[in-house]
Design goal:
seven-stranded antiparallel beta sheet, 171 residues, two-stranded parallel sheet
């Protein structure tokens, strides 16, 4: 798998467009994010953003896995399988390790505890979210906050996928 295009290099992140399932799956660092472009019309309309889903990558036993909150629950998929199954355009955002340090053990520990948690958007913009459900951007933001990255300044329930994208683009 080869990385097709380096789209842009910013101060804190590197954006890569994966145009095929031939990305170098095991060379992608933990904490990298996958953003889906125009994958859900309802999310697009509600948020006024083309970025409609976000997931996070963590390395386990030498393989990269995608963790995502989707119906019906949080799941873990081998990155290569995720890319084969995804029909939408996916952007890979790789944190620049010089500025954003991700402890893989902390990341993986948090994400594995979220597996099978029920997916729901009921927490979105809710000042008192429940911890029995989670949505995609909430999972990613909570994960980054759990790893003490200081990337996101608001509580996770106030982020939608496009806002996570905007935050990363402004880092």
């Amino acid at each position: 798998m080869t990385i097709s295009n380096v789209y842009c290099v910013l101060k804190h992140i590197i954006i890569i467009i994966c145009l095929s399932t031939t990305c170098v799956a095991n060379d992608i660092p933990s904490g990298s994010m996958l953003f889906v472009d125009d994958g859900n019309a309802i999310v697009k309309q509600f948020t006024q953003s083309n970025i409609t889903h976000v997931a996070i990558i963590a390395k386990e036993n030498g393989n990269n896995y995608v963790f995502e909150a989707i119906k019906p629950k949080v799941k873990k998929t081998l990155l290569e399988d995720y890319l084969k199954e995804t029909k939408e355009k996916v952007y890979l955002v790789v944190p620049n390790e010089k500025y954003i340090k991700i402890d893989n053990n902390k990341l993986l520990g948090y994400l594995n505890k979220q597996l099978d948690k029920k997916y729901s958007i009921e927490n979105y913009n809710n000042p008192k979210p429940n911890n029995k459900t989670i949505f995609c951007s909430q999972l990613v933001v909570d994960c980054y906050n759990h790893c003490d990255t200081n990337v996101f300044i608001y509580y996770s329930q106030y982020y939608y996928p496009g806002k996570v994208w905007e935050t990363m683009m402004n880092k």
